[in-house]
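During the first year of the project, the team set up a workflow for recording each protein of interest as an amino acid sequence followed immediately by a discrete structure-token representation. This format lets reviewers and collaborators read both layers of information side by side without switching files. As required by the reporting guidelines, we include two representative entries from the current panel. The first entry is reproduced here exactly as it appears in our internal archive.
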Amino acid sequence: IRDRYMTERDFLVKKYNLNTKLLLIQNSGRLITRQDVYTFIHAQGKLIHKNISPHTLRHSFATHLLENGAEVGRVEDTVRRICLAGGAERADVFSITSNMSASIYGKEFGSCTQTRRVVNTVNDFHKLEELNCLSRKICEDGMTFGEIEREIERIQKEQGYSFWWLVLDYALISGSFCIFFGGNAKDMVISALIGVLLKFLMTFMQKTAANHLFNALICSVAGGFLANLAVFASVADHADRISIGNIMLLIPGIAFTNSLRDMFSGDTITGLIRFMESILLAAVSYTHLTLPTI
């Protein structure tokens, strides 16, 4: 295919007396511009009922990284490397926790800038590992748009832990921390049961697309109320220790750690944003202990 195309290209250069070293030339003798590439890929996207552009997949890739909890520095470096591997001469990427902007430049296609907003984020380390492996494969081996899109869709469709496995995790975490902080057997059982109920409540709240701080507030109030109700009904002894077990489900430990790492690595704006989000979430979670007892 390469030899055949180069033969046709050399023929077009001689036919139209072109003085260029560019690789892509149209049959009419006109050089292929950035707009031509955009028009072609956009037309191909319509065939599969999708609105795509040459930079859609790169931005989608970065969006998936942010959505699954990747640190900002890694996202910026990954997008920059993919753009340079794809033929860009310069790539400038800026990202925070909820927004990413990338500008690339190349003599063949000019300059292009796109911005993406990230609404919801989770911590899915398995998908992060898969996306990191895919980024290395793109840079080292090269992949077509179709191949990249299929791989991204495959990764996004992968199922993590089942819902009932997560329910069991919530029960174990709540019960274990309750015992760790001095609760007895009855407190542990009640804390584990409340942890299960909080998992169901969190799942329901996530479907409503409400603000995550509001979700944490509702879960905190519900957990504290149930802990006090259990003590009032004499089925448990220590509401505070039960609540401590449940509050560990809401403490933003990973977010706080990432905020410090971002600031130490030079991403001050992102680090401060993560830090303030962590402090606000911790303050909201504190109502788990105080609000129901007022």
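The second entry, processed by the same pipeline in the following quarter, appears below.
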Amino acid sequence: KALNQTFVFDGKYCRFHGRRHGAPAGSHPGSRFVISLQNHDQVGNRSQGERLGCLLGPAQQRLACGLLLLAPHIPLIFMGEEYGEQHPFPFFCSFLDPAVAEAARQGRRREFADVAELDAVPDPQAVETFESAKLSWSWPGGSPQAGLRKLYYDLLTLRRFRLPLSEFSERQARRLQRFGEIQDVIRLERQATGETGAVELVAYFNVSAELQDLPEKELPPLGCCSVRKPRPMVAPGCPVRRRTCCCHSSFRSTGPEPEEHHDRDSQYGRQCLCDSAGRICHAAIRTAGRQLAGCG
């Protein structure tokens, strides 16, 4: 619903508020709205400031990345998200007034009294709390962090140079069906009409923890696209079978030939998206296999 209509709570009943909440986005395009996977409020207002890099596995982070950067909205990327930063971002402050400082400490402890051990709530005035929030700024070669950062780079490059997704006003998201059964695979289609004609991007997101077969009709026509063969090693927890691309989001795009890109390792050809994220083929046009790895 968020991919199609922007707001999930568009006037529907919300148990948290105890009433109907929100309003429809109406005819406003997705490019009028900013979305995020996490932000400083959501992270800092947790008891210990855990980021998604601590709460989700590598496969789930890649899935979230694909949903964020291919959605019909403006993406907001929280610092460190692009490589799965695991340092926390706890609430910290530096009030000079002792009374105000103590009030901040007690306020944090009261806020999480029912959901966390009080000793586990960092002291917001402590220097150690501030120091713990600093980015590691590290993504060792061959690590899930390096692969995630490359995926962010590839999809942002796709948005900027290959397909100007901010201009793709037409969108349709739906769950796939196979043999009459609804799958845990979301199909997102983005369309636009430019000077060279209609342009389309189709993305598949496996939101389950299991391998999912794509229906025959969803496979790209033979010979219409190509993909670099992924290396055999994959990230921990990423199920893979022979002839299956190790990806949790698969993408195919059609349209005119883009201008030559300066990065030799990220090749964007006609009807082609080649990923070069080292050990993991995160985003690939499905030419050989027809199964999407799960995000478990």
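For the second entry, the following points were noted during internal review. The chain is about 20% helix and 20% strand. Residues 144-162 form the longest helix (19 residues). Both points are flagged for discussion at the upcoming steering committee meeting.
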